[in-house]
Amino acid sequence: MIKNIIKIVFGCCIVLLFLHCKNEGEKDNFSKSEMENEKSDKFYHYSIWHAFVNKIFEGDITAAEVKANGDIGLGSYNLLDGELIMLDGELYQAKEDGTVVIPNDTTKVVYANATFFDVDDSFELESVADYETLRKHINRKLSSKNMFYAFKIHGEFKRMKCGGLHKQAKPFNDGLDILIPNRPIFERENFSGTMVGFFCPEFIGDINASGYHLHFISDDKEFAGHVMEFEAKNLKIEIDEIHEYQFVLPQTEAYKQVGFEKEFQYKKQ
Questions:
Q1: In this structure, how many other beta carbons lie within 10 angstroms of the beta carbon of residue 48?
Q2: Comparing C-alpha atoms, which of 111, 96, 113, 104 is closest to residue 63?
Q3: d(C-alpha 228, C-alpha 208), whole Å
Q4: Closest to 206 measured CA to CA, from 247, 234, 243
Q5: Is cis: bond before 171, omega within 30 of 0?
Q6: From first to last of its 269 residues, what are the pLDDT tens digits of the chain?
Q7: Which CATH number fits the domain that encloses residue 117?
Q8: Which domain holds residue 35?
Q9: DSSP character at residue 210
Q10: Residue 144: how many CB atoms within 10 A of its CB?
Q11: Are 9 and 74 part of one and the same domain?
């Protein structure tokens, strides 16, 4: 009799344990699914364009934090020490002398845009004569210019012209209105690579750069920077439409005290 009771109790415990594990597994799967859905449609933005324009050249987040919020992205490192390019979860740093390095996870970032790229649409172009032509082709594919978009664009480049920024030192005397027109420029011909970047609607104002903003990294990882002009063929354009926007403000004393006197938008498109 007692043995039978023990068997029944033991059997009930096994069933309850199985049901508990099953429910926990379903919760885990649901949580993972929720996280994937959340990641797929968020534009992460650290600092704001207006602060960047007004000589806030030091941030308080790291390269590791940028990678935790996306697998493609762009921006700049502290003291403007190189253009930031993120492709497939890897960060690159395009220095002012034209060299490309991989920063360590503790490298500080002053400004960043990032997202976990999820293709919503794609198309191909046999040839593109210039940047303006590419913008026109993409414009026809966008569902609305009131949305945000991320891009991953791979192709063969007959020529590519990229810009960087000169590394700064305190005290910071010049803002982007001076630095960008006098930026270092790098050019290369007959090679392949990928442009990554974003489109922000005009209403973004001083929070971000409106229009198209693309950075570039070559397949051999030896050429990178802010895209200025190019001629290309066999382009594959992938588009991710983004409906959620998150920006994180710096907690540095310089940011807290800065005035926003200067206004400057680079190449509104």
A1: 22
A2: 104
A3: 18
A4: 247
A5: yes
A6: 544 444 444 454 444 444 554 455 544 443 444 444 455 579 999 999 999 889 999 999 999 999 999 999 999 999 999 999 999 999 999 999 989 999 999 999 999 999 999 999 999 999 999 999 999 999 999 999 999 999 999 999 999 999 999 999 999 999 888 899 999 999 999 999 999 999 999 999 889 999 999 999 999 999 999 999 999 999 999 999 999 999 999 999 999 999 988 776 555 43
A7: 3.30.1330.80
A8: 1-39
A9: -
A10: 8
A11: no
Q: Copy the structure tokens of residue 180.
A: 């960008």
In this structure, which amino acid lies at residue 54?
N
CA distances from 192 to 18, 87, 224, 234, 251 (A): 54, 14, 11, 10, 39
Task: Check if the beta carbon of residue 203 is closer than 8 Å to that of residue 104.
Answer: no
Cα 75 from Cα 62, distance rounded (Å): 12
Domain assignment of residue 268, yes or no: no
Task: Report the alpha-carbon distance of residue 218 to residue 187 in Å, rounded.
Answer: 12
Domain count across the chain: 2
Is residue 89 domain-shared with residue 25, that is, in the same domain? no
CB contact set of 116 (below 8 Å; sequence gap of 6+): 39, 40, 42, 70, 71
Q: 0.90 exceeded by the pTM?
A: no
| Residues in contact with 88: Cβ distance below 8 Å, sequence separation at least 6, in sequence order | 71, 72
Count of CB atoms situated within 10 Å of the CB of 256: 9
